[in-house]
Structure formats: C-alpha cells, structure tokens
Amino acid sequence: MSDIALSQAAAQQDTRDSAGRVTVRPSPVGGQTLRFALTVIDDLGNASQTAFVDVAVQAAPVAVVSGPKTVSAGQTITLTGGDSTPAGHIKTYRWELVSKPVTPNG
Predict the structure, then answer these.
(1) How far apart are CA 103 and CA 106, in angstroms?
(2) How far separated are the first and last CA of the chain, in Å rounded?
C-alpha cells in the first residue's frame, strides 16, 4: 500500500487508498478553501515535483421565509422561500408545519 499522508486536520474524516486517492469530508463551516499538495515517490525513492490544487468549500444555503405574519381566520396563507440564498442551485424546498393550535376535537 502507498504511503499517503494528510499533513493538516482540515477534515473530519479522510480515507487513503493504494490507488493514490484521498477522500476528505470538510468541516461543516463553508466559505473556506482547502489546498492540497501531492508528491509521488517511486519504489527507488525518486520524488516528483509537488502538484497543488485548491478546492473551494461552499457554505450551506440559508433559508429565508417571506409571507404574512398575521392572517384572518379562513384566509389562505402563502409563504415563499424564494429569497433563500443557495450554495449552488437549490434542489428542494422542504416545508413542515411544526405547530398548530390544539382543538377540542383533536
């Protein structure tokens, strides 16, 4: 197996394999850039020049809810999450009613 090492703890978990790959899960804090350096060494001890790559870690999207704060009984409520800021393209808006008034019949 190749000797593959990561020199800084920029990840929560990393996986190294003999095919020369490293898999890293960045910390949940986005808006940072991770710089990786790769030097390969053959079985004779000859080292390559070091190659570098910068990987931008995007921040998580921010949910923003817009809509009325008060409505009359029986009135339709329309809420929108369209002002949410994506870290890329927003794939899904997942709405959930988390509380409602208790009624005498349940």
Answers:
(1) 5
(2) 63
pLDDT by position in tens, the chain (length 106):
333 444 444 443 445 566 777 777 776 666 788 888 888 888 898 989 999 999 888 777 888 899 988 989 889 999 988 888 875 678 888 999 888 877 777 5
CA neighbours closer than 13 Å in the CB half-sphere of residue 56: 6
Q: Where are the domains of the chain?
A: 11-57
Q: Which H or E run includes 51?
A: strand 51-57
Residue 26, classed as helix, strand or coil, is strand
Give me 24's structure tokens: 């890293």
Do residues 57 and 34 touch, judged by C-beta distance below 8 A?
yes
Report the alpha-carbon distance of residue 105 to residue 88 in Å, rounded.
45
Handedness of CA 93, 99, 103, 106 (dihedral sign): positive
